[in-house]
Design brief:
The protein is built from 14 helices and 27 strands. With 490 residues, it is an alpha+beta fold. It folds into three domains: 221 residues, Bira Bifunctional Protein, Domain 2 (BirA Bifunctional Protein, domain 2, 2-Layer Sandwich), CATH 3.30.930; 101 residues, Rossmann fold, CATH 3.40.50; 70 residues, C-terminal domain of ProRS (Translation Initiation Factor IF3), CATH 3.30.110.30. The strands form seven sheets. The protein has an eleven-stranded mixed sheet with strand order 3-9-10-16-13-12-11-24-27-23-22, with helices on both faces. The protein has a five-stranded mixed sheet with strand order 18-17-19-20-21, sandwiched between helices. A three-stranded antiparallel sheet has the order 4-8-5. A hairpin with a 5-residue loop joins β14 and β15. The chain binds one RNA strand of 77 nucleotides through α1, β13, β16, α10 and α11.
Length: 490
RNA sequence: CGGGGCGUGGCUCAGUCUGGUAGAGCGCUCGGUUCGGGAUCGAGAGGUCGGAGGUUCGAAUCCUCUCGCCCCGACCA
């Protein structure tokens, strides 16, 4: 039992905050709105990065790095983009400090004012397209498929660990293409990569969809997204992929010569996922005992805990554990043998449960005599005794089973919490209770806005796979051909 | 930016109303008994009470200013 961890049912957001801190994922830093990602949390992020990066490479992308600073004039170039980000930009105005002539400390040197302010990147479309101008001359230079892993800053009013912080880590892919069709395909391909990653690695089922114009990325023609449902019934946007049309190419004058020797503007996409995925991972699976991690992303997949009284007993157990440990490692499993003697076994059980380690192996005197080992699953909190012979195979299979089970559990939860609603009263009531609410919408921004004002619910996405179905808008009663997904969102 | 809460050993907090020179639990160090679900006993170490100014013989406590953090809302990935 986790000492003092709040219950999800009583105070979900406190439960979330506590889990992040107690499981050693991250903490609030001395800097407002910014977090420190701790080694255990960062290890999970690194695993996410590795998996995603491999998927990007497999789809033909390469990594590069662009500057942290964006000259203000760059940001201004694409009008909608500029408007969208203007209110959340950190701005560098000076380049030097000096000793305070009035006493201790440092002051900003007024003589060191920058001629042009630099914005700390909230996203990099502008710097990158300013660069692409020089890289793209001919259709032979296309497609240009580049990704960068970096930090960005968006000055939010309110922050929450991983879900929304002033500075966060992410990847942003920026591609340039010769044709509209190719760019749209790229946008969809990367959305698919994100959805596959969320489902197969994180064990989080996601809806693939399009954003309504209101929710679209500033400067995009079309924004695709993956939306996940959290255990409290709120939606979380887990990734976005944008078809940018020729907007940025026109703003930055990025033209290429096509096969017919004509000048054309390049077609663009951009796509990103961030450390927010950590929040999705935590909120999708974890329980009142702590974190539950999918084996594929767990920094420690298996922990082995000795149960002993004397140093002699520990030595005997260790002798038995060592070959198992080595064999697990050789099988590519990330395993930890916790023989530290400053904590007792019971304490360790609780600690590794809090940290979401998928499998715990316990070995004590009774096991030594019987040739068995205790196998405990984090996802179901069940224990069983297994023969030591064949334990590695058993663990391998169990890791796969846990990965699948976690996903299935989350999928079942989403299905139980997805509702078709056809009247305004039902709609309001269901939004209040939470979950994905599938309802007809007349397609207008006005209606969307009204619904948001009255219920706090937003259109999370217009699902890509939904079938057309005639109906009446939940709010206005106007004709609608398709249900969209409403929910309260993070 | 509004509304609420809070800054006191590493952590959680009491003490503030009613001023008298700082305490508990957890953690840490050393030792003993323990050890199949967060053990226990004993001995220790550890704090300019967020900061500045003021009132007072005396301030964690009262007054003024200030800095910061958390929660709820508006903005957002």
């Amino acid at each position: 039992m986790a000492k003092g961890l709040p219950k999800r049912s009583e105070n979900y957001s406190e439960w979330y905050n506590e889990i992040v801190k107690r499981a050693d994922l991250a903490e609030n830093s001395a800097v407002r709105g910014c977090m420190v990602i701790k080694p255990y949390g960062f290890a999970i992020w690194e695993k996410m990065q590795r998996a995603l990066d491999d998927m990007f490479k497999a789809t033909g992308h390469v990594n590069a790095y662009f500057p942290l600073f964006v000259p203000k004039s760059f940001l201004e170039k694409e009008e909608e983009h500029a408007e969208g980000f203007a209110k959340e930009c950190a701005v560098v105005t000076h380049y030097r400090l000096k000793a305070n002539p009035d006493g201790k400390g440092l002051i900003v040197d007024p003589a060191a004012k920058l001629e042009e302010e630099l914005i700390i990147r909230p996203t990099s479309e502008t710097v990158i397209w300013n660069t692409y101008k020089n890289w793209i001359q001919s259709w032979r230079d296309l497609p240009l498929l580049i990704n960068q892993w970096c930090n960005v800053v968006r000055w939010e009013m309110r922050t929450r660990l991983f879900l929304r912080t002033t500075e966060f880590l992410w990847q942003e892919g920026h591609t340039a293409h010769a044709t509209e069709q190719e760019a749209i395909e790229e946008t969809e391909r990367m959305l698919d990569v994100y959805a596959t990653f969320a489902e197969e690695w994180m064990g989080v089922p996601v809806l693939r969809g399009l954003k309504s114009p209101n929710e679209r990325f500033a400067g995009a023609i079309e924004t695709y997204c993956i939306e996940a449902l959290m255990q409290d019934g709120k939606a979380l946007q887990a990734g976005t992929s944008h078809f940018l049309g020729q907007n940025f190419a026109k703003s930055f004058d990025v033209k290429f010569v096509n096969k017919e020797n004509e000048q054309e503007y390049a077609w663009a996409t951009s796509w990103g996922v961030s450390t927010r995925l950590m929040g999705a991972l935590i909120m999708a699976h974890s329980d009142d005992q702590g974190l539950v991690l999918p084996p594929k992303l767990a920094p420690i997949q298996v922990v082995i805990i000795p149960i002993y009284k004397t140093p002699e007993e520990l030595a005997a157990i260790s002798e038995k554990v060592n070959p198992i440990f080595e064999e697990l490692k050789a099988a590519g499993i990330s395993v930890k043998y916790d023989d530290a003697d400053n904590q007792r076994s019971g304490w360790k059980f609780a600690e590794y449960e809090l940290k979401g380690v998928p499998i715990r192996l316990g070995l004590g005197n009774r096991d030594l005599e019987a040739g068995t080992i205790e196998v405990a699953r984090r996802d179901t909190l069940t224990k069983e005794s297994q023969p030591i012979d064949g334990i590695v195979e058993h663990v391998k299979a169990l890791l796969d089973e846990i990965q699948t089970n976690i996903y299935q559990k989350a999928l079942a939860f989403r299905e139980e919490n997805t509702f078709l609603v056809d009247t305004w009263d039902d709609f309001k009531a269901q939004i209040e209770r939470g979950g994905f609410v599938m309802a007809h919408w007349d397609g207008t921004a006005e209606t969307e806005e009204k619904i948001k004002e009255e219920t706090k619910a937003t259109i999370r996405c217009i699902p890509l796979i939904s079938t057309t179905e005639a109906g009446k808008c939940i709010y206005s009663g106007a004709d609608s051909s398709k249900r969209v997904v409403f929910a309260k969102a993070y």
